[in-house]
Amino acid sequence: MTSSLVTDFEHGISAIDAQFHRPKRAAIHLIIEEDTAALVDTGTAFSIPGVIETLKQKNLTVENIAYVILTHIHLDHAGGASECMRRFPNAKLIVHPRGARHMADPTKLVAGATAVYGETEFQRVYGEILPIDENRIIEAPDQFSIKLKGRNLLFLDTPGHARHHNCIYDECSESFFTGDTFGVSYREFDVNGTEFVFPTTTPVQFDPDAAHASLDRIMSYKPRYAYLTHYSQIGDLSRHAQSMHRFIDAHVAIAQKAKRNNSDTQAIIIEALKSLFTQELAKHGCNLPQENIDKLLHSDINLNSQGLVHWLNQVAD
Fold it and tell me: Are 71 and 47 in contact (CB under 8 A)?
């Protein structure tokens, strides 16, 4: 591990690169208060050695981790949870009530991902996911809070991306750890320090009305920063919230228009999303070659299109 895997911010917050598919695709956030620490999201089982090395660099041990917090249970956020609990003997796992049972018994979670990826690819990407002792799991309903050496962390139920999603407000830094609720922002798209943020409408629980409401709820706290799992700190949140609202509406409009066409709905959505992102990135001032942009967004556009198709089918039902 090199220092390039860790980005330190104010108030004892660090982003550790989960090394998920490519550099700076997914972050594990470390919060340190005195000699006690919490993790927000875990990456995969293969991400945890990087976390342990980071602790060593900061003169902490595995015993100093008090909490492992999951924003939600999608495996790029929670795939390393059981490995964390195996390696961090004093840690409690905090998760949304809708996700807790899947951490205690990950059978359905693993089966669903294996059906998508195949057994070999699942093992390569995620490694082993084991059951977690129920006695070490804390369910975090809306307005739940914990103290990290007196530092208050408040949990808000924030559906839209997933029904098992919490965002965590850190009163010390006046910032939110937002998982996927405040979208995705890859550092490669930064232009003169200004970030580019877009929503993630992955299957199977995208709900545009809830997504809008969750954004508004986050902004009601007037946070200074949001710490996104993909990827870490963004500022100027009022502007980004407005952009996210527009982007969500644009995704919905694209899906609804595609549904009226009798050909391949998902293929139409993919092409429309590519066009949308190309236009928005040009407005943003991004000068990356189109080939690089396509490569960075390939997975997100495919997943967003799948989520929109699933949402259309749910709406039709």
Answer: no
